[in-house]
Amino acid sequence: MNLKGRRTRLSSKKKKALRKRLLVLFTVLLAIIAGVAGLVINDRSRRAAYPLQYRAEIEKAAAAYGLPVSLVFGVVHTESRFQPNAVSPVGAQGLMQIMPETGQWLAGKLGLDEYDLMDPETNLNMGCWYLNYLIGLFGDDYNAVLAGYNAGHNRVRGWMQEEEYTENGKLAVIPIKEAADYVQKVLSAQKEYQAIYGLE
User: Fold this and answer.
1) Which of 23, 91, 171, 198 could form a disulfide with 143 if both were Cys (CB 3.0 to 4.6 A apart)?
2) Do 155 and 76 belong to one domain?
3) Cβ neighbours of residue 62 closer than 8 Å, sequence gap 6 or more
4) Is the pTM of this model over 0.85?
């Protein structure tokens, strides 16, 4: 075979190798672009699912009672999905879904003669006061705090007296499924707010 034919064959092999390299590079670039686009879309969808509505009001109420902002966002997200006029089938009202009887008790504690549970600031102030009160009762046992918010603190006090429901002085088993599910939803939402927005 002459030198020219060998060069042509070598040149053809080089072109094929170059094409393969370019194809691999193009595939890698496409994968990177798709990955970045996926992260952006995922971040947007997470932010849409866990919005920062009423941020100023929530931060103000949380600060007034020394609460983690992410916890309050988790409660509001779980309770009302940020609907200030939300009313549950059992009559709980507003952003933090306060029962009218609980609202009366809270108003007495806060020295309020008149109040509107549908008013976001009032509702958040009452709900955050109550969360702080529950932390005063149960410390950093957030299972007990959130179960108390959902099922009533007196009921949780009763559970805390039962060995079958506690472990190392903390509430380990929540015997009412609705309350147990509620606690998990709030804690999950709190983690999302911490992860997405870096909230405390």
Assistant:
1) 171
2) yes
3) 68, 69, 71, 72, 128
4) no
